[in-house]
């Protein structure tokens, strides 16, 4: 067996299951879960129709590179969404079977474990796939703690120069999970300068990019930042930079397993080679449904408006009893529970027992770095349920906190 498998930590939800194993929820109240970030809004009918209408495609083996139609519609979406110059659908776009597996596989392509002391830098707190990808690629993960003073953007300036010198890959999540932080243009300028100096690759996870709170003011993306900073032209456009996106949150189709990676053509050429052996081809019917989804924005605006309404109702209520504010983007609230006198794990266990509401302890989403766990004493709340459930859950949390005195 691969001995590096033993380096993997339990997934946050496994830790949560163990924490709550002996907790008896309040049976007088129906269960409400803010724990798992799984979209609960209904899948648009036109996507399901496009999927079923394309089932004849199951008789054919799909190509790893995906259909021309899918790559072209993704390239067109990138140009519209991020005001990019022409995106080459043949060389700068690659469909993937969900951003999760692609984020993992990308590290296996990029990391050269034969170089001593290989490092992969991750935000902290973070999506645990980054850590697992680094470990199984033969590297060691290191962490850039979130900075509460900058709405939880990673503090890249606190990473020592001798650490940067060994970093081969940097994972960025913007909007962030769990914090909702969006990197600014200055953040990207700093990270690009570090990449130029040290030669590392940047993988930007942007699966929450289409859930934001001011229509017409979408979050800045990595390729957009590169374009605005003059890095999208020349002989090597988007050099050492790729971004990942997905239909799961945007279109409420997490079961479709459809996303893409876009950016540096040289990196994507190697990634396609890896995926050809890895077996990463997308189901032909899923490709057809994906074309329909990427080509439509009306359902995305409706989806976004539903989240805006929920956050507008829930956030002020919770702010009465917890230190919490509207994130930059995404569908999580990142709440500090310190004023309750409980740790994040105590808060989660007692909230379930007394109010039958599930939240995820923030310490499970982070690692200790620079002497602190930046998720400690925080909880992540995913506002993915119906508006009524989200409002009721918030009211129960308020009641729980007030009962603590």
TrEMBL record:
Entry's EC annotation: 2.6.1.17
InterPro entries noted in UniProt: Aminotransferase_I/II_large, DapC_beta/gammaproteobac, LL-DAP_aminotransferase, PyrdxlP-dep_Trfase, PyrdxlP-dep_Trfase_major, PyrdxlP-dep_Trfase_small
Domain of life: Bacteria
Cofactor(s) needed for function: pyridoxal 5'-phosphate
SUPFAM superfamilies to which the protein is assigned, alphabetical: PLP-dependent transferases
Assigned keywords, A-Z: Aminotransferase, Transferase
EC class (word): transferase
Family matches, as Pfam families: Aminotran_1_2
Molecular function per GO: succinyldiaminopimelate transaminase activity
Domain Aminotransferase class I/classII large: from-to ranges: 32-396
NCBIfam families: DapC_gpp (TIGR03538)
Entry protein name: Succinyldiaminopimelate transaminase
The species this protein was found in: Cupriavidus basilensis
Gene: dapC
